Amino acid sequence: MKTKYIKIFAVITPIFIIAVFLGRKLIQDISKSTTKSDKSQKPNPQKKIKVMTPIKRKYSNKLNYFGNLEAFEKVDIYSKIESRITMMSVDVGDNVQEGTILVKLDDSDLVELKKQKEAIHRVALATLKQDRIKIRHKSLVYERARRAFFDKVIPQQELDDAKTEYDLSVAQAQLSQAKVKEAEATIEEVNTRIEDTKIISPMNGIVSTRYLDFGSLVKLNQPIMQLLNINKIKLFVNLPEKDYKEIIDYNNSSNKEIKVNVFIEALNKTFSEKIYKIYPTIDPSTRSTKIEIRFNNPSHILKPGFYCNIIFQKEHQTDSLFIPINAVYYNEVKKTYLIQLIKNNKVLIKEIEVLPYNENDFLIQKGIQQDDQIIIPYNPSLKNGSSISYKLVEKKLP
Predict the structure, then answer these.
(1) Measured between alpha carbons, how far is residue 258 from residues 277, 310, 311, 334 in Å?
(2) What are the pLDDT digits (tens) for 228-269?
(3) pLDDT of the residue at 43
(4) Residue 396 burial class via C-beta count within 10 angstroms: exposed 0-12, middle 13-18, buried 19 and up
(5) Which has fewest Cβ within 10 Å: 228, 263, 356, 362?
(6) Is-cis flag, bond preceding 377, omega within 30?
(7) Residue 251 in contact with residue 244, Cβ under 8 Å?
(8) Coil vs helix vs strand at 326
(9) Three-class SS string for 156-195?
């Protein structure tokens, strides 16, 4: 019996020892893992937060607007008659001079009509010639009758008849003269219509668009082509009512302290110009007034339709504060800008007002003092009132 217990004990003992060993190792591993995890969750006391103060610099206030360049003059070319195009001498992009024949329309019907009117005119002239001969004849008859009447050779009736015949011949000649003038007026009208088949450029310009081609039927209210005068270019700016006093003085003229710089993105170039005209009224629908700027463009480098950034910049400069964009957090829900300040070694989250200055920096409008210490970059993991250590750094704006 003892031998049996000894055998059982001999089997159980090694199993127990192995279980105790494995249990201890598992507890140690868990302990080490927990310790490592706790250590990873603790902040590294060596890592310090970077802090900076706002940068102070001279700043010229700018007002930015946007617009598109327009041709100085734009003319759609129409025909005064309905006919078919028989010749088109210009194409899109061609430069034309005032008086150049742009388009020729079919005038064959008008030429034929002119021939008919000229024939009528010739008949009217011949009739008038005959009537004038009759007048001279009737005048002689009447003069003889008048003498004979005074000599008491003929009665009053014959004198009256001679006078009547003379008057009728004069009236007939006047009617023929009127028909001649009518025929001449008709011929002149046809000539004008024939001239209207030659469509002439009303100005120096460039062909920007052709609406019709050779052989097309032209209707009265249908444009044939468009001409642009781009030797000068104009630009209109809708100035909001709230900015009116910033740009315009009480004499309704351009403020002498304001510069107008026009940046054209397509050319990557800025042009400095003066305000040409200030329109005298405010549009009640947009609460804005219109400002016109003009450019000389002899080389045609400026094209109608170019997108422009119009910058009104004051000469007077003021000291202003700037901070990097990455020091600011924008709360999209509340539509507010936030920064993190250091006050008594603790984090203070504060709302501020800023304006974009360039792609890297904000212009401070409200909420920051020159000696404020700002955490850079904004750290979302830092809560309001958190105690931290920090390192003050310097940053220079471009």
Answers:
(1) 15, 12, 9, 35
(2) 999 999 999 988 887 777 676 544 555 555 678 899 989 999
(3) 42
(4) exposed
(5) 356
(6) yes
(7) no
(8) helix
(9) HHHHHHHHHHHHHHHHHHHHHHHHHHHHHHHHHHHHHHHH
Work out whether strand 205-210 and strand 225-240 pair parallel, antiparallel, or are unpaired.
antiparallel
Tokens of 219: 């209707």
Angle formed at CA 134 by CA 128 and CA 137, multiple of 5 degrees? 150
Across 90-122, b (16+ Cβ under 10 Å) vs e yields beeeeebeeeeebbebbbeebeebbeebeeebe
Q: Give whole-number Cα distances, 176 to 25, 127, 143, 179, in Å.
A: 138, 6, 24, 5
Angle at 350 between CA 348 and CA 353, to 5 degrees: 155
Report the percentage of the chain scoring pLDDT > 70.
81
Residue 8 has pLDDT above 90, yes or no: no
The overall longest dimension of the chain from CA atoms, in Å, is 202
Q: Report which of 180, 298, 277 is spatially closest to residue 230, judged by C-alpha positions.
A: 298
pLDDT tens digits, one per residue of 85-101: 999 999 999 999 999 99
8-state DSSP, 53: P
Determine the residue type at 58.
K
| 54 to 78, 358, 376: CA distances (angstroms) | 64, 16, 11
Whole-structure pTM value: 0.57
CA 181 to chain centre: 54
CA 371 vs. chain centroid, Å, equals 45
